[in-house]
TrEMBL record:
Keywords: Cell membrane, G-protein coupled receptor, Membrane, Receptor, Transducer, Transmembrane, Transmembrane helix. The gene is LOC115464766. This is Probable G-protein coupled receptor 139. It is found in: Cell membrane. It is a multi-pass membrane protein. Pfam families: 7tm_1. The lineage of its organism: Eukaryota, Metazoa, Chordata, Craniata, Vertebrata. SUPFAM superfamilies: Family A G protein-coupled receptor-like (SSF81321). GO terms for molecular function: G protein-coupled receptor activity. Residues 24-300 form the G-protein coupled receptors family 1 profile domain. It comes from Microcaecilia unicolor. The chain crosses the membrane at residues 12-32, 44-68, 88-110, 130-150, 189-210, 238-258, 278-303. GO terms for cellular component: plasma membrane. CDD domains: 7tmA_FMRFamide_R-like (cd14978).
Length: 345
């Protein structure tokens, strides 16, 4: 049977993203870890934790799942449990990205709007505890996916007429009560609650910033100070929050919507029918999530000036290191030659 066009697109897309997306994630991590961006340590920790989760997610999707499905015999190279393990890691990263985004926006809300709470909550120690707690909780909550995802034969056949397998949800999932309940529960954990909290905290934070900025300008009787550090800090917070929120919604909202559509569609959508519109949109949404590793770095470069400066400085330093062996050494000048001869006499 002829391969569906969406699978052909994925066959080309994932190797390309592994070549460009994985280095982009590592570069983002390196730039944030180096510092010199005028951001607090708490912000740096959150952004690095998000970048690491994105890197692991991209690594699992591109290398350990789809590339091996397209180009390697899964049954020969990987034992059957590898399917469940890869999805366990995948959903750990998914939950981590989602809830770290919520935790970061809540941290910004507290430091901007909570005058008393911020001295106890917005500390480096608390940030580290929150990040470790999110990763740990995500790892434990994602554990049941190990039993949900198994190698499933598809309608696509190889040259020998053998049906190819894809790592996907087991067909008898609805017959296993606990796993079926969990499959519906993760929709709430992954989609509904985080989305509501994200929109609520960002709306309250932006409203508070505009309200206090207007009040400060009123107290100054319209004479705005271009060197007002507080105004600059608030403007920087709005830019960073806007980047994080826009990136999250642009890359994750389509996946969230199509997941809800799959739940509400009657009769249920056959996930193994790669010609069905819902299945096609779901796979496109998965590709959009993978694309976030590259687009996030581009958004940081466009929105954060010091990130752009550090990125350019790193590119120049790397280019100089690579090209240095090929740069001919200039001969010493006449005065330098005379000095050398004087020293040797």
């Amino acid at each position: 049977m002829e391969e569906p066009w969406i699978r052909t697109v994925q066959r080309l897309f994932y190797p390309i993203m592994s070549v460009f997306g994985l280095p982009a994630s590592l570069i983002t991590i390196a730039v944030f870890c180096k510092g010199n961006l005028g951001l607090s340590k708490s912000i740096i920790y959150y952004l690095v934790a998000l970048a690491i989760a994105n890197f692991l997610l991209l690594l699992v999707i591109t290398v350990f799942r789809d590339i091996f499905f397209f180009y390697v015999d899964l049954s020969t190279w990987w034992p059957p449990p590898s399917c469940g393990i890869s999805n366990w890691i995948y959903f750990t990263c998914v939950y981590s990205v989602t809830w770290l985004t919520v935790a970061f926006t809540f941290d910004r809300y507290v430091i901007i709007c909570g005058m008393k709470l911020k001295f106890r909550y917005c500390t480096v120690k608390t940030t580290q505890q929150v990040i470790v707690g999110v990763y740990t909780a995500a790892f434990l909550i994602a554990m049941p996916t190990f039993w949900i995802y198994v190698p499933v034969p598809t309608q696509v056949q190889d040259l020998n007429g053998t049906s190819l397998e894809i790592c996907s949800i087991r067909k008898d999932l609805n017959e296993i009560f606990i796993l079926s309940i969990y499959d519906h529960f993760q929709t709430t954990v992954w989609i509904i609650i985080p989305l509501v909290l994200l929109v609520l905290t960002n709306s309250l934070t932006v409203w508070h910033i505009f309200d206090t900025t207007k009040l400060r300008q009123g107290l100054k009787k319209g004479n705005t100070d271009q060197n007002d550090l507080e105004t600059t800090r608030r403007r920087r917070s709005i830019i960073l929050l806007s980047i994080i929120t826009a990136s999250f919604l642009a890359h994750w909202l389509p996946k969230m919507i199509i997941k809800v559509v799959e739940r509400l569609t009657i009769p249920p959508v056959n996930r193994y029918d790669f010609f069905h519109p819902v299945s096609i949109v779901r796979m496109l949404a998965n590709m959009l999530i993978v694309l976030s590793s590259v687009s996030n770095m581009c958004m940081y470069a466009l929105g954060v000036e010091k990130f752009r400066q550090e990125l350019a400085r790193g590119i120049k330093a790397s280019a100089f290191t690579v090209c240095k062996p090929f740069i001919p050494l200039s001969p010493p000048s006449q005065s330098q030659s005379q000095n050398i001869s004087d020293l040797t006499q």
